[in-house]
Every structure is written in structure tokens, then in C-alpha cells.
Amino acid sequence: MEERKNIFFYSRKDDDSLGKTAFLKEAADRYDFYVVDKHEDANIIVSVGGDGTFLQAVRQTGFREDCLYAGVSTTGGLSMYCDFHMDDTSKMVDVLANENLEVRRYPTIEVKVDDNTSFYCLNEFSIRSGVIKTFVIDVHIDNLHFETFRGDGMIISTPTGSTAYNKSVNGAVVDPMLPCIQVSELASLNNNRFRTLGSSFILSDQRKLVLNVVQDGNDYPIMGIDNEALSIQHVESVEVGLSGKMIKTLKLKDNSFWHKVQRTFL
Ligand code: NAP
Ligand code: MN
């Protein structure tokens, strides 16, 4: 494997984050890494902050598949995407210096809104009503018209995103070793006129989900890709599926996905 020596640091731009990043850059320098100014020149991309910062680091560097991503937490403890802590730089150096380091791969979602180019998500794609009235979506799985949803909206999450927004609406936590997407409802209406499945469901990587927004004056929903709003306004159809892109992170000892779930929630 090519030598992993070029590090790009990504952080928020506030004084505290910049100060912590400067400290990490010095440490990297001391251990013979090259700190680069452009992410294109890096083979390791380090996010400094929380899970939200990690999502931004991946997005701002274009969901690269040819480098390793690592999250350094600047908060109280470790989190779902931050396997290292600010106060333990030596652990990170040890891991990166190891020739036989193992990587783990996180599946991502690809979203296509009408005829726009595709967007990728590491946590989830969310679509919500932009007005007070309920929002109607015809939900298709492959070519099957599966249900007509009426309510606030839907969340389509990746396995690693299953512990985020998806979990707040009672979705299941999914092992990232399973390449799949989970569809969860936001406040569906269920009565004698309107019916949805009512529970979250999980689709294989072979499936395509198509959401057709019923054009009845509520076709300006709020759409989110991870922690960013999509600037597209009017929408008719959204196609969602697992993308071919996987995000590579470092696999550490005693730090499996289920260790992290336990550490974070139990
Ligand atoms: P935020 O509003 O600060 O995030 C909410 C919390 O979610 C933060 O504590 C964040 O951790 C955590 N988080 C992010 N990704 C996670 C993951 N994969 N598993 C477990 N926790 C996770 O905004 P943000 O930090 O930019 O994060 C964006 C994410 O927030 C979205 O992708 C969405 O999943 C989630 N969100 C949740 C709700 C909800 O639960 N009702 C509503 C909107 C958005 P850090 O503090 O370490 O950043
Ligand atoms: Mn956050």
C-alpha cells in the first residue's frame, strides 16, 4: 500500500477548533507526517470536532474513496464517527504508523432529485413538509407502487446514520456491515382513508426507492442531505438507493460499531 503520510485537517472555523487543529498539526509534523493545505493532496483526512464535523469533512472533500477518513473528537468523549480523542494523539500516531492497519467501510446513499446531479449522504436523506399542511408522497420500491404516504415526511438512512435522526423516530440501529438503506416515517397519518406501513423498513442495496411528491400545492418540501439543506425548491420525484461509494475509516481494537453503540447509548 502507498505510504500514508499526507494529512489534511478539516475543522470548523471558530477559534477553539482552529486552536485544537493547530495543536494536532504540530503533533503530525513531529511524527513525520506532511500536513497538506489541499485535501486533493492527502491520503488521510482528519476531521477535528464532533460527528457533525465529520459529516462536513466527508462532504466538503467530495466523499473520496481513495483516502482514509478519521474523526478526532474535541468534545467530552468519543462518538460514532470520532474514534480518536484530542487528548490521546499518540494512539492515532500508533495506528497510522502501523503497516497492517485495517479499514472499515461505511455505505453511502445516492439521491437524485428530478433531473439534477446526484448527491451523496453518509447519515441520511430527509424530506419534510415545508408548510403546515400534510405532505403526500407516492412511495415506489423498484416498480411497485408500495404506499401513499401522508404526513410530515420521511428519512432514508444509511447504516451509520441509523443511530442519528432515524433513531429519534424509533428506527432500528443497523450494522454497517449490511449494505442497506432504512426508510422511516415522520408522523404518518393512519386512518380509514390513509394507510402506510407504519414501521420502518430496510431495503437491500439492489433496490431503488422512488418518492413521487404529489403536486397539490405542497411540493416545496425541505430536503436534507446529512447536515445540509438541499437548495432545490420545487420537486416532483426523488430517487434514492445505496451508492457504490464507501467511506473508509480506521478499524481499531475494541471499537466495533456495537462497542460504539453501547458506549453512546447504554
Ligand atoms: P446537530 O443538530 O448538532 O446533531 C444532532 C446530534 O446528532 C449531535 O449530537 C450529533 O453529534 C449527532 N449525530 C450526528 N451523526 C450521528 C450519528 N451517525 N449517530 C449518532 N449521532 C449522530 O447537527 P450535526 O451535528 O450537524 O449532525 C447532523 C445530523 O443530526 C443529521 O445528519 C441528522 O441525523 C441529525 N438530526 C437529528 C434530528 C433528531 O434526532 N430529531 C433532527 C435533525 C438532525 P455531534 O454533537 O458529535 O456533532
Ligand atoms: Mn453537531
UniProtKB/TrEMBL annotation:
Binding residues for NAD(+): D51, G52, N123, E124, R150, D152, T163, A164, Y165, N166, K167, S168, A187
Active-site residues, as the UniProt record annotates them: D51
Keyword check for GTP-binding: no
Subcellular location: Cytoplasm
GO molecular function: ATP binding; metal ion binding; NAD binding; NAD+ kinase activity
Entry annotated with the keyword Transcription: no
Known EC number: 2.7.1.23
Reaction(s) the record says it catalyses: NAD(+) + ATP = ADP + NADP(+) + H(+)
Pfam families found in the cross-reference section: NAD_kinase_C
Listed GO biological process terms: NAD+ metabolic process; NADP+ biosynthetic process
GO cellular component: cytoplasm
Keywords attached to this entry: ATP-binding, Cytoplasm, Kinase, NAD, NADP, Nucleotide-binding, Transferase
Needed co-factor(s): a divalent metal cation
Family: Belongs to the NAD kinase family.
UniProt function note: Involved in the regulation of the intracellular balance of NAD and NADP, and is a key enzyme in the biosynthesis of NADP. Catalyzes specifically the phosphorylation on 2'-hydroxyl of the adenosine moiety of NAD to yield NADP.
The protein, known as: NAD kinase
